Amino acid sequence: MTVTEPAASADPAASRAAEILSRPVTINGLTVPNRIVMAPMTRRFSPGGVPGEDVRSYYARRAAAGVGLIVTEGTYVGHESAGQSDDIPRFHGEDQLAGWARVAADVHAAGGTIVPQLWHIGMARKQGDPPFADAPAVGPSGIRLDGTEGTGRAMTRTDLDAVIGAFAEAATAAERIGFDGVELHGAHGYLLDQFLWAGTNRRTDAYGGAPVARTKFVAELVAAVREAVSPGFPVIFRYSQWKLENYDVRLAETPQELEAILAPLAEAGVDAFHASTRRYWVPEFDGSDLNLAGWTRKLTGRPAITVGSVGLDGDFVRAFVGEGAPVQGIDDLLDRLERDEFDLVAVGRALLQDPQWAAKVLSGRFTDLRPYDAAATRTLS
Ligand SMILES: Cc1cc2nc3c(=O)[nH]c(=O)nc-3n(C[C@H](O)[C@H](O)[C@H](O)COP(=O)(O)O)c2cc1C
Questions:
Q1: Torsions phi, psi of 133, nearest 5?
Q2: Tell me, what CATH number does 350's domain have?
């Protein structure tokens, strides 16, 4: 890593950011050298599901610039209905895993740590590219996020076991080929979230109904992953209140409902939670300033990663969240870190824009940061 020590900066806010964000933290024995996480971001640069040379250097560049923990783009587990696009990387198959092994090696050589984000899209699947073009969309009740039935079907016991097996196998592979842990994608309305959320889970068996029953499938999956890897191999779980194309729906309306979902997952073996929000500074429930990551840490006692519009300039944040939305500076983020509201901070688009983002922030060079431009999502620079 090129940046290990915060450099002196004339700007006190920048010096404070460099000092606080440079503190190491551990997740189940894994030492993350600082508090900056690269958020998982689908890039679609992996033809045939194989991450190649360009994907390797894209991640390694960010590790070399000081990102403490990289969460890769979502990568499909080995189940026929897990995904739909042939240019999104897969986490199964010889060539695909060989490509991923090289990504992990390059990130380590650059001084970073890295976990793959393991993904099954469930009822979000519309059509499929080969080699799984004919597989059906599957989900807890065969219901899409918009409430329609579409062409998918409700998962049978055999399907549940197959998906659990696919996640466990992917986690085993991650450990074998040199990753530092795994992140399970339980957010944004994809398969695991479809079980957690009442809008898509209408099952009347043991896997549907009250929040704790809706958590049962995911808890079994976490337990299987935990069992499949070494006890000291970190398992991170990402979840969100919001869903794709529907930012207003929620998994939990109260801290009690949230606890009913998260406690069984922590119990099943989640080592850290990644609470996906679009704006980190928004309080999650009435009567407290805590954001979703803050509540997650408080309710589970596990390390928590926050995310949402960190490092984006005001104009873009306004464009993203709506005209007139309040924009929060970095001081608020640092105050929350200092209070141990959460432990790590994931950064998405700002890191797409500027591979050197972490190096600049960790050395207090705020004036060198580049403003965000959405064109950054179209290249692998
Ligand atoms: C291009 C792009 C692709 C994304 N892909 C994923 C993904 O594969 N998995 C996931 O959990 N979140 C995904 N996200 C959400 C990000 O991880 C992150 O939560 C979001 O961008 C908010 O963080 P930011 O404001 O720092 O960008 C994606 C976001 C973007 C911009």
A1: -60, -35
A2: 3.20.20.70
Specify whether 372 is catalytic: no
* Averaged pLDDT for residues 259-271: 98
Give the Cα-Cα-Cα angle 296, 300, 304 (nearest 5 degrees): 45
CA-closest residue to ligand 1 atom 20: 348
**In angstroms, rounded to a whole number, what is the distance separating the alpha carbons of residues 368 and 366?**
5
Q: State the pLDDT at residue 130.
A: 80
192 burial via Cβ count (<10 Å: 0-12, 13-18, 19+): buried
**Cα angle 50-56-62, degrees, rounded to a multiple of 5:** 140
Structural domain total, the chain? 1
* Alpha carbon distance 264, 257 (integer Å): 12
User: Full-prediction pTM beyond 0.85?
Assistant: yes
- Taking Cα atoms as reference points, which of 312, 304, 370, 380 lies closest to residue 341? 304
Q: Name all residues whose Cβ lies below 6 A of ligand 1.
A: 39-42, 73-74, 117, 185, 187-188, 238, 276, 307-310, 312, 347-350, 377
Spatial contact of 159 and 86, defined as CB atoms under 8 Å apart: no
Q: Are 40 and 73 in contact (CB under 8 A)?
A: yes
- C-alpha torsion sign, points 269, 186, 143, 279: positive
Compute the distance from residue 40 Cα to the ligand 1 centre, in Å: 6
What are the C-alpha distances in Å from 292 to residues 14, 140, 226, 253, 277? 25, 25, 24, 12, 7
**Residue 7 covered by a domain:** no
What's the domain range around 116? Answer: 12-378
Higher per-residue confidence, 120 vs 371: 120
CA 327, 331, 335, 336 dihedral sign is positive
Q: Is residue 323 part of a domain?
A: yes
Q: Is residue 4 part of a domain?
A: no
